Fold Glutamyl-tRNA synthetase.
Amino acid sequence: MSAGTTSASGPHTGAGRFAPSPSGDLHIGNIRSGLLAYVRARQTGRRFLWRIEDLDRVRPGSAESQLEVFSELGITPDEPPLVQSERLDVYTQALDRLQDRGLVYECYCSRKDIRQAPSAPHSPPGAYPGTCRNLTESHRERQRRRLTEQGRGPALRLRTDNTEITVEDRALGPITAPIDDLVLKRGDGVFAYNLTVVVDDAASGVDEVVRGDDLATSAPRQAHLANLLGLPPTTWMHVPLVVNTAGRRLAKRDGAVTYQQLRVLGWTRHDVYAWMQTSLGFADDPTAWSTIDDMVVGVDPARLPRQETVFVPPTNAAV
């Protein structure tokens, strides 16, 4: 089966996707999550799509570099990438639909305000306590003037009642979380992650999301938001992260963790896939992985690890 074909299960109307932020080079953990998204799409006959989430942190050239890395690994998305910065009108329309239903309100709180505010009953730690939810119009006008004097604007939040939502995850099982008044648009005018991904996944036909399990608790929020917008439901598969020896997210300070850095140290595409095979627990399988097609055939989703993988960067070319 070639990297551009669907699996024996036949064509599928849905899609999977990889949606990196173009803020720098992809590290080995990002790459593993993206490869698993591709593998799952091919195994189920879905299209594999790419999204450039460039509404916040952007480093020039990163989006192109990330696509080039996957191209070197044998993967080309089935359609041109969707670019979020070109879709502001679409997010505005989604926000307007929620506003028309009375589900949006202005929030004037800073992060410090939220940290120092008492928690709302039955809400999880760090959840927004609803400080601005039921202010009078005169109070809101005073808060708007205060923010204007500071050169800021209010954020826009979704009005909820902290109801618990449960979604089924193919790897983790049920994920349950209360839905707080999440931000839909930040005070600086940037549309928030939860809104944009829900809108974009629906527009692209993405019906299964494969991503790192650090985002697992976002799935109930996104499922709730999609339901409010009348969008099709999504299924989920959250996979364990790759971390450093201290158990934290990989970062530049950890050494050679990006594809470019590993290439300088002598890693080939085959080395990348060999590491993927070992890190995912398939090292004892009879066929050694050296291409994406090997990975598509070799990955058994039911056997994927449930714990984080520690990546120890090589220090020289003799790796």
